[in-house]
Structures are given as structure tokens and as C-alpha cells.
Amino acid sequence: MKIIVALVGNSNKFPPTVSLLNALGDLQVETVLVTTKTSYKSINNCVSTDVIDLDYESYSPVQKMMLIPLLRKELWEKIEHHYTDGSVIWVVTDVTLKYLGYRLIGKRYVLQFLELSDKLVYYKKIPWLHLNAAKLCNNAIQVVVPEYNRAHILQALWNINKLPVVISNCPYNHENIKKDNTVYDEKARNILNEIGNKKIILYQGIIGKERPLEPMIRAVSSLGDEYAFVVMSGGKNIYENIRSRNFYFIPFVAPPGHLQITSHAYIGVLSYVPTKETGYSVLNTLYCAPNKIYEFSMFGIPMIGNDNPGLRYVFQTKHIGEIFENWSEKAICDAIGKIERKYGAYSKAAIDFVIKEDVLKQIKSVLDIINEILLREKGR
User: In sequence order, which ranges of the chain are alpha helices (DSSP H)?
Assistant: First the structure.
């Protein structure tokens, strides 16, 4: 078996893709990553890379549409070079699928969607220009999503015959990062030194309207110097004008190095509000599947988050965090207070939660499906 992982974008900005590659390597599966510009470094000899030197993220949405003929040609040239008997194309993200298109049909392929879309549109401002999702999904060996509710939603939205399987966004890597780990990124280390012994309430990830943070920054500021609210993100610091003595911003740190900073957090923050400006379904945030839940849990870090079905279910059933019912300073501070009063119990529950999440087993279950198909074809 050979897996050709196809990804448009830098794999280091997609932690689930890095986990997939690392897991395939550990399972001794011959793997090739066909991608645009990447900084991924293989952890063993089972995974190789074949890179198109293109900084995809630097292009505007219109430019990305104009790229379709050229990038599609280059992707398929590389995929065809590696595709032999026993090969399977593992397509990561809806964006990659749009560039590969219907040529996938007739090949063996897996579709992995990290986000939830209503349609596979090429550009959100041209909604009538889209792929036939049902056709592509029903010709795939398997469709993969990161969360249980998303599997059922996607099946219903796109008329998928077989329920998608879940591979969670739990990190799978070989970094031996411990609580309060040494931080090697100089900028991040200097900021942590400036924070000192304050209890760090950390948000890590993209920032914008879909992930509002200002109410939490102000709430933590009201609690005084015992706490520091830290945002770690690759985006622009849109909160730099907020007057707060205990707000800090750490620029992007490439995975898995960002976990060194995560390890210093006292409480983790999750924020997901539905908007219609992302190009994805409004359900994408309601049934979120953040890898951050697992990244915080790795270090026994309890969490707070706003009220939505995805967060409420996992917080209440796994006892790893507290939901605030509204965005008032009082509600956010009350959630922090609840964590403080039973911090040890929340911390233990978080560690237990991540220990039970076996992402290697989940990936192996898809490989078993692939193996069955390959054996069936060989027996014909």
C-alpha cells in the first residue's frame, strides 16, 4: 500500500495533516506528501515529500481561482508520477479537492474534510460555481471528518451513501513536551519571562469575527494582576489597542513548537461564534472540532468557552471545562472561578480525556478499509 497525501497549503498550518503523516510513518505505510510550499520534516523514512514551490496562502481569492488550471496540472503530474498499483490518494481539505476535481473519479481516494461546508464552492462570492459533492464523496473509498455530529450533518447535506468516519483532531507527534516546557522561540520566551508568575489564560489559533476575544480580555483584566490573557496567533494583533496591563500577544509559532508555549497555560480559551463571512457553513463553528481541546488537555489544562453544542457537549460529558452562558464580564469571570475552585479535578479529567483518544487507531481503521479493497481487487 502507498498513500499519496495531497494538500494545497503549508502542512505545518494543518496540525491534523501533520498527525496523519506522523501516524502513517509509524505504521510503516509508504507515504508521499504532494503539496505546495511546506516546512514539514518527516519523522522517519516512510514519508517523503514532493513539493510544488508555490506560496498558496499569499494569493488573493481571485488569484487562487485563476490558479486552478495551472495548479491542477502540476498536482496531477506529481500524483500520477507516484500513483501505481496499490496506491491511494488521501485528499486533505476541501480546497485541495477543488484543485484536483473530478479526475479523482476512477482512482482510489479518501476525502478528509477539516471544515464543514454547505457546498464545495470555488469562491464564496460565486455560489453557483461548485463541485458535485455527492458524486465525489460516493466514489471515494472513505470520507473522513473530525467530529461525530459533522459526520451526520455532512451525510445529510451532501447525500453521502456511507456515514463518514471520524478521525479526531487529537495531535499525534513525537515531541516529548512536558508541562512548563522550555520554550525555544525567542520572542515567545521573552514574553513569558515578562509575564512571570501570573496565571496564563491562553487563546491559540486564528483571530477574527468568528473567534471573538475582546470580552474575555476585558474580563481577565478586571481580575487584576493574578492573571495574564495571552493570544498566540499568526494573524494581526487586532486587540493591540485594548487598554489592559495583563494582555500579551505571541506571534505564530510553527507546530509542534507552539505546544511549548501551550504547556505554560493555566486555563485554555475556546471561542466559536457562527458567522456567514468564512465561506464555510454556519454549522462549522456550532459543531466545532478544535485540536486546541486536545492540545490543552495534553498538559492537564482546564478550559473555558462560549455556549455552543460542540463545546458544551465535550465540556459537560468529559468535565474538562466550563461554559459561560453569555459574553458579559461577570459570566466569563464566574466560569474562571468555577475552574479555580476545582482546578485539580478539571486538570485530571483533561489528562484522562486525551489519553483515551486513540487517533492512531482511528487512522488504522481507515487503512483497514483500504486494505480490504486492495485485497478484493487483487483477488479478481
Answer: 15-26, 61-66, 68-82, 94-100, 133-138, 148-158, 186-195, 214-222, 258-262, 283-286, 291-298, 309-318, 329-341, 343-355, 359-378
Number of residues written out for the chain: 380
| Mean pLDDT, rounded, of the chain | 92
Closest CA to 113 of 153, 73, 75: 153
Q: What is the pTM of this model?
A: 0.92
How does 35-56 read in b/e, with b if 16+ C-beta sit within 10 Å?
Answer: bbebebeeeeebbebeebebeb
- Go through the domains of the chain in sequence order and give each one's CATH number: 2-170+358-378 (3.40.50.2000), 186-355 (3.40.50.2000)
- Say yes or no to pLDDT of 45 above 80: no
Q: Which three cell numbers stand for residue 198?
A: 501570573
Please choose, from the candidates 261, 312, 266, 269, the residue with its C-alpha nearest in 3D space to the C-alpha of residue 292: 269
CA distance 160 to 141: 12
Give pLDDT tens digits for 259-273.
999 999 999 999 999
Q: Distance of alpha carbon 228 from its chain centroid, rounded? A: 25
User: Coil, strand or helix: which one is 327?
Assistant: coil
Per-residue pLDDT reduced to its tens digit, 139-160? 999 999 999 999 999 999 999 9
Question: Which of the four pLDDT bands, split at 50, 70 and 90, describes residue 174?
Answer: low
Strands 109-112 and 120-121: unpaired
Structure letter (DSSP) for residue 166: E
Looking at residue 363, its amino acid is: I
* Contact between 84 and 27 (Cβ < 8 Å): no
Distance of CA 312 to the CA centre of its chain: 19
